[in-house]
Specification:
Elements (H helix, E strand, L loop, with lengths): L1 H6 L36 E3 L6 E3 L2 E3 L9 H13 L4 E3 L8 H11 L1
Parallel strand pairs: 3-4
Antiparallel strand pairs: 1-2
Length: 109
């Protein structure tokens, strides 16, 4: 599980909340968790203006290229999906395409 936890990323790199930029109580919470989520499930968030709900946690593909074996990368992707991750990010440039190839194989089945 430690390998999967290390590979699960995808949240934007945002500044920390301070007193000067913290949302006030009157803020419209359009990114509030889906009220139908069950305790322990990964909350869902809207994906831009598409109307599609995706998991608030994502799997970043860069780390998949760091694992030693393709089977381990596939296991990480499957474990993320089994635990409710529906948002994944990848790029061909990650590890000369290896991360994208392995994620693709994992998503095939």
């Amino acid at each position: 599980m430690a390998s999967a936890a290390a590979a699960v990323t995808g949240l934007p790199d945002t500044p920390s909340v301070t007193a000067n930029n913290a949302p006030n109580e009157q803020t419209n919470h359009t990114n509030a968790p889906d009220s139908s989520t069950i305790s322990g499930d990964i909350p869902r968030r809207p994906f831009g203006r598409t109307g599609v709900q995706v998991s608030a946690l994502g799997l970043g593909g860069y780390s998949l290229g760091d694992v030693k074996m393709e089977s381990e990368a596939i296991r990480i992707v499957h474990e993320a999906i089994d635990n409710g991750v529906t948002f994944m990010d990848n790029a061909w440039e990650y590890h000369n395409g290896r991360s994208e190839e392995w994620m693709g194989k994992a998503l095939e089945g």
